[in-house]
């Protein structure tokens, strides 16, 4: 991996290259700033690798198309920004309910609505979690570098297949438009592994069978194989048939949440910088984690024992890691380009009564490291 | 700052600043260094203030925007007015004398060049890249030239004559 040449490219292009490397063969989307280079790159690269790119009429159909492609066995993805992500929520819910793997990239820009198309924001944290209605689990990854854009896209497909779920790659305009050096490594065989096939005869296959421990996720064979199954957004039993009994509904909804919650160990990832001896912690993700890293490094130079917990998985929220950090420090700072969406989650986990201060910025500009440094100084005094 | 150099390329949309920022970054990566380019612009394709921050470093790059630029290129009056009053004493400011009237206050570290005398309008940004490369010394002339040759050979929108314009800009500094 270290021998591989570095290229200088954008987060958006790295996302599309990551998808191609992961074996994605289908993209359907409607270009939107600041994510358009993903569509542009996918349009060029997928046909070169035997895949298909479809420019759709809108984001509703884009989401529907990738769900259909995924059911047929393809690794499928789409990319958008806030306005389009809003339109995708209905069919995203269909993918949740039908347990259909897919990857949805949301390059966050300033909102609500059309907002400021070229300006970065991190305001879709809760939308990624709860944008589609009803209780469910979801996986959301947050890249903070162009290398992350590449690596996390590969991981997103792998997680989607493994847990039969949509995975949201929650990038932001700053990281997606950023150009920096990146290595386009080859994915591991596990990362490119085809979806497992059922090990039972076709007539015994129950596509929505649930292991109560959520250790085994029932495989999803491609549509058109000998394994016949029905996909529906309505409440269904283990065969995919109507299943609106209270007992069945309870089982299904607990499963949709539980298959994510009970597999946190395999899903949740964080990065720790200088946390071992820290008595102040910055907790950040995406572009704000870059500001935070600079602030923490400068704090250390000035003799302030600060550390950084970078949340590279946002959902499920890294409860254990956050709680562990909060239990060791005297104060925490949560910088983000929204009015406190992650800070609220951190406070939910603050059983230790320490001050947790948010740094919120919603003017379309990045948080300067100096702002975080000031907050660390104040937290210390 | 331990092998880190920040450069700001500022002007208005349509002048090709993001393009030359990417060439600087790519040339630095070719030299085995870390580089990042972040750009700020409006929704308009042309005409409004835009800036590209290029950071080149031997270490990992944390914050992606320039905080203490060593060199600032200003291809519009709005860019000059924004940066000239706030630059540190060590920084170099390069401006297009066809478009910028200097205030005179920072004269010791500000240098104007007429881009129209160095290149035609289609490659003026490359001439400006030559100036920035020579004055900042942040990358080698040949690294940028190599990236330019690669880009003009591919399907990129870079025009023929780009390398010549770059060389002319570079040479103008030593005149």
Overall CATH architecture of chain B: 3-Layer(aba) Sandwich
Which word captures the global form of chain B?
Answer: globular
Cα-atom radius of gyration of chain B: 15 Å
Strand order of the largest sheet of chain B: 2-3-1-4-5-6
CATH superfamily descriptor of chain B: Pyruvate-ferredoxin oxidoreductase, PFOR, domain III
Q: What assembly state would you assign to the polypeptide chains in this entry?
A: heterodimer
State the helix count of chain A: 14
CATH superfamily of the largest domain in chain A: Thiamin diphosphate (ThDP)-binding fold, Pyr/PP domains
Number of helices of chain B: 6
Low-confidence stretches of chain B: none
Bin the strand percentage of chain B. 15-25%
Helix content of chain B: 25-40%
What is the end-to-end distance of chain B? 29 Å
Category from helices, strands and their pairing of chain B = alpha/beta
Descriptive labels:
heterodimer, A: 381 residues, alpha/beta, Rossmann fold, 2 domains, 8-stranded mixed beta sheet, 5-stranded mixed beta sheet, 14 helices, 15 strands, 40% helix, 20% strand, globular, B: 175 residues, Pyruvate-ferredoxin Oxidoreductase, domain 3, 6-stranded mixed beta sheet, 6 helices
Describe the protein in words.
The complex is a heterodimer of chains A (381) and B (175). Chain A is an alpha/beta fold. Chain A folds into 2 domains: 6-192, Rossmann fold (3-Layer(aba) Sandwich), CATH 3.40.50.970; 269-380, Rossmann fold, CATH 3.40.50. Chain A has helices spanning 11-21, 36-48, 59-71, 82-98, 125-130, 146-163, 173-177, 189-192, 246-261, 264-267, 286-301, 319-328, 341-348, 369-380; strands at residues 6-10, 26-29, 52-55, 76-80, 102-110, 116-120, 139-141, 166-172, 179-183, 270-273, 280-284, 306-311, 313-315, 331-336, 356-360. In chain A, strands 2, 3, 4, 5, 6, 7, 8 and 13 form an 8-stranded mixed beta sheet that branches. In chain A, helix 4 (82-98) links the parallel strand 4 and strand 5 (102-110). In chain A, helix 1 runs parallel beside helix 6 (146-163) and helix 3 (59-71) runs parallel beside helix 4 (82-98). Chain B is α/β, with parallel strands linked by helices and 175 residues long. Chain B has one domain: Pyruvate-ferredoxin Oxidoreductase, domain 3 (3-Layer(aba) Sandwich). Helices cover 37% and strands 22% of the residues of chain B. Chain B is built from 6 helices and 6 strands. In chain B, strands 2-3-1-4-5-6 form a 6-stranded mixed beta sheet, sandwiched between helices. In chain B, a hairpin with an 8-residue loop joins strand 2 and strand 3 (49-57). The longest helix of chain B is centred in the N-terminal third of the chain and has 14 residues, at 17-30. The radius of gyration of chain B is 15 Å and the shape is globular. The model of chain B has no long low-confidence stretch (mean pLDDT 92). Chain A binds chain B through residues 6-8, 33, 116-118, 174, 177-181, 287, 290-291, 293-294, 297, 366, 368-369, and chain B through 21-22, 25-26, 28-29, 34-43, 61-65, 67. Strand 9 (179-183) of chain A pairs antiparallel with strand 2 (34-40) of chain B.
């Amino acid at each position: 991996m270290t021998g591989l040449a570095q290229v200088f490219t954008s987060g958006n292009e790295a996302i599309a290259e990551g998808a191609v490397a992961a074996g994605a063969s289908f993209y359907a989307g409607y270009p939107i700033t600041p994510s358009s280079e993903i569509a542009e790159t996918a349009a060029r690269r997928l046909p070169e690798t035997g895949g298909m790119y479809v420019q759709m009429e809108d984001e509703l159909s884009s989401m529907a198309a990738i769900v259909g492609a995924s059911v047929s066995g393809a690794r499928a993805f789409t990319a958008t920004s806030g306005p389009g992500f809003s339109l995708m929520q209905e069919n995203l819910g269909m993918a949740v309910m039908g347990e259909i793997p897919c990857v949805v990239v949301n390059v966050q820009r300033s909102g609500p609505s059309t907002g400021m198309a070229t300006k970065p924001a991190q305001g879709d944290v809760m939308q990624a979690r709860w944008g589609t209605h009803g209780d469910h689990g979801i996986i959301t990854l947050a890249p903070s570098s162009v290398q992350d854009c590449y690596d996390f896209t590969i991981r997103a497909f792998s997680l989607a297949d493994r847990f039969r779920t949509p995975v949201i790659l929650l990038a932001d305009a700053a990281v997606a438009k950023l150009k920096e050096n990146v290595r386009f490594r080859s994915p591991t065989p596990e990362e490119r592994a085809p979806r497992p096939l059922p090990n039972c005869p076709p007539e015994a296959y129950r596509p929505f069978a649930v292991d109560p421990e959520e250790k085994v996720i029932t495989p999803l064979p491609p549509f058109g194989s000998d394994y016949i199954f029905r996909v529906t957004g309505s409440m269904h039993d283990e065969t995919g048939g109507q299943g609106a009994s209270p007992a069945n509904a309870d089982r299904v909804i607990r499963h949709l949440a539980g298959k994510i919650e009970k597999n946190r160990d395999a899903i949740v990832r964080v990065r720790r910088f200088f946390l071992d001896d820290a008595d102040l912690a910055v907790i950040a993700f995406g572009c704000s984690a870059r500001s935070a890293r600079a602030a923490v490094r400068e704090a250390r130079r000035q003799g302030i024992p600060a550390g950084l917990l970078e949340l590279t998985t946002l959902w499920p929220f890294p409860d254990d890691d956050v709680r562990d950090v909060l239990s060791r420090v005297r104060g925490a700072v949560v910088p983000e380009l929204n009015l406190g969406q992650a800070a609220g989650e951190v406070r939910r986990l603050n059983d230790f009564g320490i001050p947790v201060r948010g740094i919120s910025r919603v003017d379309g500009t990045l948080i300067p490291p100096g702002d975080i440094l000031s907050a660390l100084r104040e937290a210390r005094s | 700052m331990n092998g880190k150099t920040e450069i700001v390329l500022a002007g208005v949309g349509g002048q090709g600043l993001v393009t030359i920022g990417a060439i600087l970054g790519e040339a630095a990566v070719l030299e085995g260094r870390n580089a990042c380019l972040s750009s700020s612009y409006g929704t308009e394709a042309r005409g409004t203030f835009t800036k590209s921050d290029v950071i080149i470093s031997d270490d990992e790059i944390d914050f992606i925007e320039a905080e203490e630029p060593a060199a600032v290129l200003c291809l519009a009056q709005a860019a000059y007015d924004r940066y000239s009053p706030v630059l540190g004493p060590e920084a170099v400011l390069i401006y297009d004398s066809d478009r910028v009237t200097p205030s005179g206050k920072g004269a010791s570290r500000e240098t104007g060049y007429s881009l129209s005398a160095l290149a035609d309008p289609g490659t003026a940004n490359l001439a400006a890249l030559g100036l920035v490369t020579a004055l900042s010394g942040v990358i080698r002339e040949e690294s940028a030239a190599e990236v330019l040759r690669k880009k003009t050979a591919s399907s990129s929108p870079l025009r023929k004559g780009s390398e010549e314009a770059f060389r002319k800009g570079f040479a103008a500094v030593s005149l």
